[in-house]
Batch of 3 targets.
Target 1
Amino acid sequence: MIQGEKPMTRAELVLEVEWLLQGGVHPELICLELSKSPGAIDRLCRNESRHDLAGPFNALDRSLRNQSASEERKARMTEYNRARRQRAKDRKIAA
């Protein structure tokens, strides 16, 4: 958006999303271009009754959430294993 220019309306955003998707632009790049999250664009399209446009953003949103959850699980398991090794080491020293 150019300084001093009014922000796009919801309908204009949906038209922009449609135009970019038809032009072959990847949904992730559309999110960056519009400064919106995939979930926000998904909700915007659904609220404007454009479920046909929402699909790629819903898939991207789920993918990113699953990736984030996987990284959190991995971090918890790393911490759990570190604590388990430390307890085993402490028992060995105490024995």
Note: The helical segments are 10-22, 27-34, 38-47, 51-94.
Target 2
Amino acid sequence: MNNDNKNKMPLAFFLLGFSGGFRIEIPVFLLPAMIYAILSKNCRSDFYKANFIAIIMYVIGLLTWLIPQSILCNGFVSWLNATLNRF
């Protein structure tokens, strides 16, 4: 993975997490691709740091839409029940 792609990886992981606000299945569906992107990187001195930053950006992307959504539904459990009842 060249330097340009390494710099774009945290942004890509943020957008992957953020995409769950539009369709809840997208982050789950693309999780194998995310794991492959993490594991396919060559072992370098910054391997763990780059992966840690990418995973943190994924979590931030998820929380960007999950926290307001939970507040609007009067709590996370209410949001989860409403979401699971759709299926």
Note: The chain has a mean pLDDT of 82.
Target 3
Amino acid sequence: MTIISKPIMQIVMALTVALGLGFSTAQPAEARHHGGALAAGIIVGVVGAAIISNEIRRSHRRHRHWRRHHHHAVSCYRGTEQCGWVGHRECWYNRYDERVCRGGHYKCWRERICN
């Protein structure tokens, strides 16, 4: 099955409604041909409704799948950036009273904040 993009689907829906209204309300020149225009209008309306309901069903299915597998992203956001030394790090003061540190690495991160 192919996925129809939103702008194309909107165009298809607008054309379906326009054609359905046009066929069902057209006044034929002769009364004996009235049934054909009405039938065509009904057919166009049914096909259009089937297309629209199919897209709505697939949209709900995709949304349900996304919520099931990505539920943590719905109510969480990234906090402010924090930076600091991580890992095994040793610090001491040398004979000149200067602080000397070795090891570890400097890293920046953003914590996940969830409501």
Note: The chain has two domains: 6-73, 75-114.
